[in-house]
Design goal:
The protein is α+β, with helices and mostly antiparallel strands. It has three domains: about 5-160, Tumour Suppressor Smad4 (Sandwich); about 180-265, Zinc/RING finger domain, C3HC4 (zinc finger) (Herpes Virus-1, 2-Layer Sandwich); about 365-475, no CATH class. It has eleven helices and 24 strands. The strands form eight sheets. Strands 2-1-11-10-7-8 form a six-stranded antiparallel β-sheet, with no helix packed on it. A five-stranded mixed β-sheet has the order 4-3-5-6-9, with helices on one face. Strand 7 and strand 8 form a beta hairpin. The protein is elongated, with a radius of gyration of 33 Å.
């Protein structure tokens, strides 16, 4: 924080125009004004919010005024609606909690300080109380004291250096909170705002969200458009400049910009025919192969839009109905459930899930851990299998490869999937669960602990539904068996 004074606030109660104004010098780049104890400029008045407004100075020396949360700022009895207001010096604005002009409480005039005229050497900064108090015109001694100080001084809202550090930390914490993306919980980078609600996010975060939903992540209002918010982006850049540890690395920034460009190229703006009262365009994703965009809202299910396109079941973008690989494999469709996906077509995978919604069965061997409910959605039986593999020193990848090498044709039929078959995430886990059950069933009983083999078989075997909801039942009975009771 710089201790050079760059501005002065002259304050008075609007209803007491005959009262001398109180003067507060501004030397921090972030100055909150309000009634809270930790505000840089404290105004203990019931009509002013705890943190009512914020004055910031950027590296270029520009001074900006912004309201905090929903608190009102009025210029000439007119509400200031802009997020940020550039102050040139000499502006007068008002702080009040209500919208009626009669409830104005504080009149503030901002004056810029010329460094040549006001420097640390010729400013006799006086530490004084920071409460805004009207001065009695009849108090000659008080008026004389103020007049003496006002020649070349201003009154700081600082109790001590330690108190100043505490205030700055609190102010910066509030600033960081307002500049944090609610999706990634990091400081804005390439900030954008959505319309009409005007909530703001990192552009990449919102593009990834938009692939999944067409509503605002904060208020759930339908989004009609989005655009870069240059003011918030500049404020976030200023904050990161002052706090380098809060920012991203140059490599991350370059990667994010490339990803934004890639995702933006798949988003097309098309007219919304069913809307006659708004000029906004609806954003729909395009086909990753040919760029085709549907002229209607994309349904959530996989119905056909036209003879050459289907709908990705994950991100809802149009995808070609057939892309052949090795003359027989369709890289768009899951061979088990027959739903369509775009994960194997886009360079970066499906934007809805980073490419994990469709994969080749052979890719299952890249798993580093088995799901906790892999066997029959029973965590107890899965834990027994994991313990056995750990005792035998069998890596997860080797176990999965063993499952793939021993696919039972009778289990899925003659046209069942092979290692090179594309399957969706849900079907791949169900497929692996059936193969893992076969492997677990083939383990000799003498290789398992007595605590496992001593359990009686459940009457309903692997079809038991209680095993998934009652842990005590799953522990007490063995479910790696067939059903014996209907």
């Amino acid at each position: 924080m710089s201790h050079n004074v760059w501005g002065i606030l002259c304050m008075r109660l609007k209803k007491d125009q005959d009262t001398d104004a109180r003067m507060f010098s501004l030397s921090s780049d972030l100055c909150f004004v309000g009634s809270d104890e930790d505000c840089y400029v404290r105004i203990p008045d019931g009509g002013v919010a705890g943190k009512h407004c914020l004055l910031t100075r950027d590296p270029d020396g520009h001074v900006w005024l912004t309201g905090v949360d929903s608190h009102k700022i009025f210029i000439n009895d007119t509400p200031a609606l802009d997020d940020l207001i550039l102050l040139q010096g000499g502006e007068t604005f008002y702080l009040r909690a209500e919208e009626e002009p009669s409830t104005s409480v504080i009149e503030i005039t901002f004056k810029k300080v010329d460094k040549k005229s006001y420097s640390g050497d010729n400013l006799n900064l006086v530490k004084n109380q920071t409460d805004l108090e009207p001065i009695n015109p009849g108090d000659k001694s008080r008026q004389s004291e103020i007049a003496k100080d006002s020649n070349v001084t201003s009154i700081l809202n600082i109790k001590s250096d330690q108190g100043l550090t505490s205030k700055l930390g609190s102010d910066e914490s509030v600033m960081e909170s307002n500049l944090t993306c609610s999706i990634c919980t990091l400081i804005f980078f390439e900030c954008c705002s959505v319309q009409p609600c005007l909530h703001s996010f990192c552009t990449l975060c919102y593009l990834q969200w938009m692939a999944l939903s067409d509503v605002c992540p904060v208020c759930r209002m339908p989004v009609q458009n989005y655009a870069k918010n240059h003011q918030l982006d500049a404020l976030a850049t200023l904050f990161v400049t002052q706090h380098p540890d809060k920012g991203r690395t140059n490599a991350d920034k370059e990667e994010i910009k490339k990803e934004i460009q890639r995702l933006s190229s798949t988003i097309r703006r098309i007219p919304q025919p069913q809307s006659t009262s708004s000029s906004f365009n609806v954003l729909l994703p395009g086909c990753p192969v040919c760029g085709y965009v549907s002229s209607h809202y994309v349904p959530n299910h996989g119905s056909t839009l036209c003879p050459s396109h289907n709908i990705c079941a994950c991100c809802s973008c149009p995808v070609p109905s057939l892309i052949r690989h090795q003359s027989t494999v369709n890289l768009v469709q899951c061979e088990i459930c027959c739903r369509s996906f775009c994960a194997l077509l886009s360079t970066g995978g499906c934007p809805g899930c980073s490419g994990a919604c469709l994969l080749l069965l052979s890719d299952l061997r890249n798993m580093t851990a088995l799901p906790s409910d892999l066997l029959l959605r029973n965590t107890v039986e899965t834990s027994i299998l994991k313990d056995y593999l750990a005792e035998k020193g069998v890596p997860v990848s080797d176990f999965i490869q063993s499952c793939l090498d021993n696919i039972d044709p009778n289990l899925f039929g003659a046209s069942g999937p092979t290692e090179q078959s594309p399957v969706c995430r849900d079907c791949s886990l169900q497929f692996l669960s059936k193969l893992a059950y076969q492997q677990r069933e083939a383990i000799p009983r003498h290789e398992l602990p007595v605590s496992v083999t001593a359990r009686p078989d459940c009457y309903y075997g692997r079809n038991c539904r209680t095993q998934r909801t009652k842990m005590s039942h799953a522990h007490r009975y063995n479910h790696i068996c067939e059903q014996r009771r209907s």
